[in-house]
Amino acid sequence: MRKLVILFVLMFCIGGFTFSQTDADNDFSPLDAYYLGRAVAANILASYSLYDKPELTEYLNRICQALVINSPRQTPYKGYFVMLLDSNEYNAFATPGGHIFITRKLAESASSEDMLAAIIAHELAHIMLRHGISIINESKFENEMTALADMMANRAAGQSAEAARAASFRDSISRNIDVLIKSGYSQTQEFEADNEAVVLLANAGYDPNALLEVFRILQKARNSQNSGLFSTHPSPEHRIANLERLKFRANNTLQYRLQRFKNMKF
What we know:
Helix content: 55-70%
Largest sheet: 3 strands, mixed
Radius of gyration: 19 Å
Protein backbone atom coordinates (compact mmCIF):
# COMPACT_ATOMS: atom_id res chain seq x y z
CA MET A 1 0.00 0.00 0.00
CA ARG A 2 2.83 2.39 0.87
CA LYS A 3 4.54 1.81 -2.50
CA LEU A 4 1.22 2.31 -4.31
CA VAL A 5 0.60 5.60 -2.56
CA ILE A 6 4.06 6.93 -3.39
CA LEU A 7 3.67 5.87 -7.03
CA PHE A 8 0.42 7.76 -7.44
CA VAL A 9 1.84 10.83 -5.75
CA LEU A 10 4.69 10.89 -8.23
CA MET A 11 2.32 10.30 -11.16
CA PHE A 12 -0.18 13.00 -10.32
CA CYS A 13 1.48 15.60 -8.15
CA ILE A 14 4.89 16.39 -9.60
CA GLY A 15 4.91 19.29 -12.01
CA GLY A 16 2.99 22.54 -11.73
CA PHE A 17 2.28 21.89 -8.06
CA THR A 18 2.40 24.81 -5.66
CA PHE A 19 1.60 25.24 -2.04
CA SER A 20 1.11 28.63 -0.47
CA GLN A 21 1.22 28.97 3.29
CA THR A 22 1.30 31.86 5.74
CA ASP A 23 1.66 31.98 9.50
CA ALA A 24 -1.98 32.99 9.78
CA ASP A 25 -3.37 30.40 7.40
CA ASN A 26 -2.18 26.79 7.30
CA ASP A 27 -5.14 25.62 5.23
CA PHE A 28 -4.96 23.72 1.95
CA SER A 29 -5.44 25.82 -1.18
CA PRO A 30 -7.89 24.65 -3.91
CA LEU A 31 -4.88 23.53 -5.95
CA ASP A 32 -3.51 21.49 -3.04
CA ALA A 33 -6.91 19.85 -2.53
CA TYR A 34 -7.12 19.01 -6.22
CA TYR A 35 -3.78 17.20 -6.36
CA LEU A 36 -4.42 15.45 -3.07
CA GLY A 37 -7.83 14.39 -4.37
CA ARG A 38 -6.38 13.04 -7.62
CA ALA A 39 -3.98 10.84 -5.73
CA VAL A 40 -6.75 9.60 -3.43
CA ALA A 41 -8.93 8.90 -6.49
CA ALA A 42 -6.12 6.90 -8.08
CA ASN A 43 -5.93 4.73 -4.97
CA ILE A 44 -9.69 4.14 -5.06
CA LEU A 45 -9.42 3.07 -8.70
CA ALA A 46 -6.68 0.65 -7.70
CA SER A 47 -9.28 -1.14 -5.56
CA TYR A 48 -12.34 -0.82 -7.82
CA SER A 49 -13.00 -1.04 -11.56
CA LEU A 50 -14.90 1.63 -13.44
CA TYR A 51 -18.34 0.70 -14.76
CA ASP A 52 -18.01 1.31 -18.49
CA LYS A 53 -21.32 2.97 -19.34
CA PRO A 54 -20.54 6.43 -20.78
CA GLU A 55 -24.19 7.43 -21.13
CA LEU A 56 -24.83 6.72 -17.44
CA THR A 57 -21.71 8.59 -16.40
CA GLU A 58 -22.77 11.59 -18.47
CA TYR A 59 -26.25 11.45 -16.95
CA LEU A 60 -24.92 11.41 -13.38
CA ASN A 61 -22.61 14.32 -14.17
CA ARG A 62 -25.54 16.37 -15.50
CA ILE A 63 -27.32 15.77 -12.20
CA CYS A 64 -24.19 16.78 -10.32
CA GLN A 65 -23.85 20.01 -12.29
CA ALA A 66 -27.48 20.91 -11.61
CA LEU A 67 -26.76 20.60 -7.88
CA VAL A 68 -23.51 22.57 -8.11
CA ILE A 69 -24.90 25.40 -10.24
CA ASN A 70 -27.62 26.03 -7.68
CA SER A 71 -25.22 26.06 -4.74
CA PRO A 72 -23.48 29.23 -3.49
CA ARG A 73 -20.46 27.24 -2.30
CA GLN A 74 -17.05 27.48 -3.97
CA THR A 75 -16.28 25.00 -6.75
CA PRO A 76 -13.03 22.97 -6.52
CA TYR A 77 -10.02 23.83 -8.65
CA LYS A 78 -11.20 21.78 -11.66
CA GLY A 79 -14.83 21.26 -10.73
CA TYR A 80 -16.64 18.02 -9.92
CA PHE A 81 -16.76 14.72 -11.75
CA VAL A 82 -18.87 11.63 -11.01
CA MET A 83 -17.74 8.11 -11.88
CA LEU A 84 -19.46 4.74 -11.54
CA LEU A 85 -17.65 1.81 -9.94
CA ASP A 86 -18.44 -1.73 -11.05
CA SER A 87 -19.18 -3.14 -7.61
CA ASN A 88 -22.01 -4.98 -5.84
CA GLU A 89 -21.39 -2.96 -2.68
CA TYR A 90 -23.70 -0.20 -1.58
CA ASN A 91 -21.06 2.52 -1.38
CA ALA A 92 -19.91 5.96 -2.50
CA PHE A 93 -16.74 8.02 -2.03
CA ALA A 94 -15.72 11.65 -2.52
CA THR A 95 -12.18 13.05 -2.65
CA PRO A 96 -11.10 16.56 -1.62
CA GLY A 97 -10.36 17.31 -5.28
CA GLY A 98 -13.99 17.00 -6.45
CA HIS A 99 -14.06 13.34 -7.56
CA ILE A 100 -17.22 11.41 -6.69
CA PHE A 101 -17.46 7.63 -6.99
CA ILE A 102 -20.74 5.71 -6.78
CA THR A 103 -20.97 1.94 -6.96
CA ARG A 104 -23.22 0.36 -9.56
CA LYS A 105 -25.20 -1.39 -6.82
CA LEU A 106 -26.01 1.84 -5.02
CA ALA A 107 -26.91 3.65 -8.26
CA GLU A 108 -29.20 0.90 -9.51
CA SER A 109 -31.03 0.82 -6.17
CA ALA A 110 -32.43 4.29 -6.91
CA SER A 111 -35.99 4.35 -8.20
CA SER A 112 -35.92 8.00 -9.33
CA GLU A 113 -33.56 10.72 -10.50
CA ASP A 114 -34.20 12.48 -7.22
CA MET A 115 -32.69 9.53 -5.35
CA LEU A 116 -29.61 9.60 -7.59
CA ALA A 117 -29.36 13.33 -6.94
CA ALA A 118 -29.60 12.64 -3.20
CA ILE A 119 -26.67 10.19 -3.34
CA ILE A 120 -24.57 12.68 -5.31
CA ALA A 121 -25.61 15.58 -3.06
CA HIS A 122 -24.39 13.75 0.04
CA GLU A 123 -20.96 13.18 -1.52
CA LEU A 124 -20.85 16.77 -2.79
CA ALA A 125 -21.55 17.91 0.75
CA HIS A 126 -18.51 16.06 2.09
CA ILE A 127 -16.35 17.96 -0.42
CA MET A 128 -18.02 21.32 0.09
CA LEU A 129 -17.72 20.99 3.87
CA ARG A 130 -14.04 20.02 3.44
CA HIS A 131 -14.37 16.86 5.48
CA GLY A 132 -11.48 15.21 3.66
CA ILE A 133 -9.20 18.16 4.45
CA SER A 134 -10.33 18.17 8.09
CA ILE A 135 -9.00 14.62 8.44
CA ILE A 136 -5.56 16.17 8.05
CA ASN A 137 -6.17 19.46 9.83
CA GLU A 138 -7.66 17.92 12.96
CA SER A 139 -4.68 15.62 13.40
CA LYS A 140 -2.27 18.53 12.81
CA PHE A 141 -0.78 16.69 9.85
CA GLU A 142 -0.09 19.90 7.97
CA ASN A 143 2.63 20.97 10.39
CA GLU A 144 4.21 17.55 10.15
CA MET A 145 4.05 17.62 6.37
CA THR A 146 5.58 21.07 6.23
CA ALA A 147 8.51 19.96 8.37
CA LEU A 148 8.96 16.86 6.22
CA ALA A 149 8.83 18.88 3.01
CA ASP A 150 11.45 21.31 4.33
CA MET A 151 13.74 18.46 5.31
CA MET A 152 13.37 16.77 1.93
CA ALA A 153 13.90 20.02 0.05
CA ASN A 154 17.13 20.66 1.94
CA ARG A 155 18.45 17.17 1.27
CA ALA A 156 17.35 16.68 -2.32
CA ALA A 157 20.13 17.96 -4.51
CA GLY A 158 18.62 19.25 -7.73
CA GLN A 159 15.13 18.19 -6.72
CA SER A 160 12.35 20.75 -7.15
CA ALA A 161 10.40 22.10 -4.19
CA GLU A 162 7.24 20.85 -5.89
CA ALA A 163 8.55 17.29 -5.97
CA ALA A 164 9.51 17.43 -2.31
CA ARG A 165 6.08 18.80 -1.45
CA ALA A 166 4.39 16.06 -3.44
CA ALA A 167 6.27 13.36 -1.57
CA SER A 168 5.21 14.89 1.74
CA PHE A 169 1.57 14.24 0.84
CA ARG A 170 1.90 10.48 1.11
CA ASP A 171 0.74 10.35 4.74
CA SER A 172 -2.22 12.60 3.93
CA ILE A 173 -3.28 10.35 1.08
CA SER A 174 -2.99 7.25 3.25
CA ARG A 175 -5.09 8.88 5.94
CA ASN A 176 -7.79 9.91 3.46
CA ILE A 177 -7.90 6.41 2.00
CA ASP A 178 -8.17 4.84 5.45
CA VAL A 179 -11.16 7.05 6.27
CA LEU A 180 -12.93 6.72 2.93
CA ILE A 181 -12.61 2.95 2.58
CA LYS A 182 -11.91 1.56 6.04
CA SER A 183 -13.19 3.63 8.93
CA GLY A 184 -15.50 6.28 7.48
CA TYR A 185 -16.12 9.87 8.51
CA SER A 186 -17.27 10.69 12.02
CA GLN A 187 -20.97 10.46 12.83
CA THR A 188 -21.07 14.24 13.17
CA GLN A 189 -19.59 14.69 9.69
CA GLU A 190 -22.04 12.23 8.16
CA PHE A 191 -24.97 14.05 9.72
CA GLU A 192 -23.53 17.39 8.53
CA ALA A 193 -23.28 16.01 5.00
CA ASP A 194 -26.86 14.72 5.16
CA ASN A 195 -28.13 18.12 6.27
CA GLU A 196 -26.15 19.94 3.57
CA ALA A 197 -27.37 17.46 0.95
CA VAL A 198 -30.96 18.35 1.76
CA VAL A 199 -30.19 22.02 1.11
CA LEU A 200 -28.45 21.18 -2.18
CA LEU A 201 -31.43 19.12 -3.31
CA ALA A 202 -33.97 21.77 -2.43
CA ASN A 203 -31.98 24.56 -4.12
CA ALA A 204 -31.80 22.54 -7.35
CA GLY A 205 -35.51 21.69 -7.38
CA TYR A 206 -35.09 18.06 -6.35
CA ASP A 207 -37.23 16.49 -3.64
CA PRO A 208 -35.24 16.60 -0.36
CA ASN A 209 -37.25 13.60 0.85
CA ALA A 210 -35.38 11.52 -1.75
CA LEU A 211 -32.48 11.26 0.71
CA LEU A 212 -34.85 9.63 3.19
CA GLU A 213 -35.89 7.21 0.45
CA VAL A 214 -32.22 6.30 -0.12
CA PHE A 215 -31.77 5.57 3.58
CA ARG A 216 -34.90 3.41 3.63
CA ILE A 217 -33.47 1.36 0.75
CA LEU A 218 -30.23 1.00 2.67
CA GLN A 219 -32.16 0.05 5.77
CA LYS A 220 -33.67 -2.91 3.93
CA ALA A 221 -30.39 -3.87 2.30
CA ARG A 222 -28.31 -3.79 5.45
CA ASN A 223 -29.38 -7.27 6.52
CA SER A 224 -27.89 -8.79 3.35
CA GLN A 225 -24.58 -6.87 3.32
CA ASN A 226 -22.26 -5.77 6.10
CA SER A 227 -19.51 -4.34 3.90
CA GLY A 228 -19.37 -1.01 2.07
CA LEU A 229 -20.99 1.98 3.73
CA PHE A 230 -22.74 -0.25 6.27
CA SER A 231 -19.38 -0.79 7.95
CA THR A 232 -18.32 2.88 7.92
CA HIS A 233 -21.48 5.00 8.22
CA PRO A 234 -24.05 5.64 10.96
CA SER A 235 -27.06 3.34 10.75
CA PRO A 236 -29.81 4.29 8.28
CA GLU A 237 -32.20 4.50 11.25
CA HIS A 238 -30.13 7.20 12.93
CA ARG A 239 -29.76 9.14 9.69
CA ILE A 240 -33.49 8.96 9.00
CA ALA A 241 -34.23 10.21 12.52
CA ASN A 242 -31.76 13.07 12.03
CA LEU A 243 -33.37 14.22 8.76
CA GLU A 244 -36.95 13.84 9.92
CA ARG A 245 -36.33 16.64 12.41
CA LEU A 246 -35.68 19.06 9.55
CA LYS A 247 -38.35 21.04 7.74
CA PHE A 248 -37.66 21.58 4.08
CA ARG A 249 -39.45 22.50 0.89
CA ALA A 250 -38.61 22.37 -2.79
CA ASN A 251 -40.31 23.20 -6.05
CA ASN A 252 -41.71 20.04 -7.63
CA THR A 253 -39.94 19.72 -10.98
CA LEU A 254 -40.41 15.96 -11.33
CA GLN A 255 -42.16 16.21 -14.70
CA TYR A 256 -38.98 17.53 -16.34
CA ARG A 257 -36.82 14.54 -15.42
CA LEU A 258 -39.16 11.53 -15.12
CA GLN A 259 -38.74 10.32 -18.70
CA ARG A 260 -34.97 10.72 -18.85
CA PHE A 261 -34.62 8.60 -15.71
CA LYS A 262 -36.79 5.90 -17.29
CA ASN A 263 -34.50 5.92 -20.33
CA MET A 264 -31.41 5.10 -18.23
CA LYS A 265 -30.45 1.45 -17.66
CA PHE A 266 -27.94 0.57 -14.97
